[in-house]
Amino acid sequence: MKRLISLLFCLVCIYAKTCCDDGWIGYKGSCYLFGHGLHTFTTAEQYCRQRNGHLVHVNTAEENTFLTDQMRDRKDRAWWLGITDEGSEGVWYWFDTNTLAEFTDFHPGDGGPHIIEDCAVYDPSVAYQWVDISCEKQAYLPLCEARSSDCTDAVVVG
Length: 158
Prior knowledge:
Blueprint: H1 2-11, E1 12-19, E2 25-27, E3 30-34, H2 41-50, E4 54-55, H3 61-74, E5 79-84, E6 93-94, E7 99-100, E8 119-123, E9 129-133, E10 141-147, E11 149-156
Parallel strand pairs: 5-10
Antiparallel strand pairs: 1-11, 2-3, 3-10, 4-10, 5-6, 5-8, 6-7, 8-9
């Protein structure tokens, strides 16, 4: 009897997956929304907040690669990041949490002390590396991020 119970237990695998709202793409505990309409930095952040998120935080090279691969599928569009150096030139913070960005991917020559360029976008003209630009430029799409909810599904294997 114990062997049968063990066998049945082995046949059922419980796992957690990323659950996101319709239109959002899940990846490693976050959900991403590639928004619509051209926005300034502030209106892009508002767009994301209206959808229960914020402009994207990129924490690792792996996450950055996932996002740039998604952008390549959407062809030649530039996307806002939720990062700013408005408080101190060349020191980049995540806007909604005011935490220092530990990972960045600025194109060479960008991300430094450019007085009127306090926000950043993924720029397709430089292989989706980050470039710093004016926060007031209404020319980029919002890239939103939200935490995923964890869903647990039982799957029968075998």
